[in-house]
Amino acid sequence: NGALASFDGPSNRTYTGQVTLAATSGIGGNTNMYMTGPIIGPGGLVKLGTNHVIISGSNTFSGQVVINSGVLWGDVIANGGQSSSFGNSPASTPIVIGANSENALFGYYG
After folding, report:
1. Considering all CA atoms of the chain, what is the largest pairwise distance in Å, rounded to the nearest integer?
2. Per-residue pLDDT of the chain (110 residues; tens, 9 = 90+)
3. Any residues with CB less than 8 A from the CB of 34 and at least 6 apart, and which?
4. For 14-49, b where at least 16 C-beta lie within 10 A, e where not — what string?
């Protein structure tokens, strides 16, 4: 397990490199994050923190996406099993609004 976090920055953070998810990993913080590089691997994402995370492009990671707090945005939405901003997990693996559902949102921009 790993984490990609953005804390206490004066502005938004942008990550342009490839991210490989070998296992389910946390993502979040309190400074907004833009992820523009490919996200690959068998792992999933758990959105943590109060920030907004904006994921662009078609990504091929195959694990589940859970949003526990904050907002997770994407610009590509596709049917289950096809690449999207939120990976290519099968249709039987939905995006989940998790533990802190009053403060967790999922959004599309495009």
Report:
1. 40
2. 566 777 766 678 888 999 999 999 999 888 899 999 999 999 999 998 888 999 999 999 999 999 999 999 999 988 777 889 988 887 777 788 886 677 888 888 87
3. 12, 13, 14, 15, 54, 56
4. ebeeebebeebbbbbbebbbbbeebbbbebbbbbbb
Provide the whole-model pTM: 0.87
Q: How crowded is residue 110: how many other Cβ atoms within 10 Å of its Cβ?
A: 9
Q: Which residue has the tokens 């901003």?
A: 85
Task: Report d(CA 43, CA 71) in Å as an integer.
Answer: 20
Q: Which residue is it, tokens 């492009």?
A: 57
End-to-end CA distance of the chain: 31
What is d(CA 96, CA 22) in angstroms, rounded to the nearest whole number? 20
Whole-Å CA distances, 47 to 5, 68, 78, 109: 10, 6, 20, 18
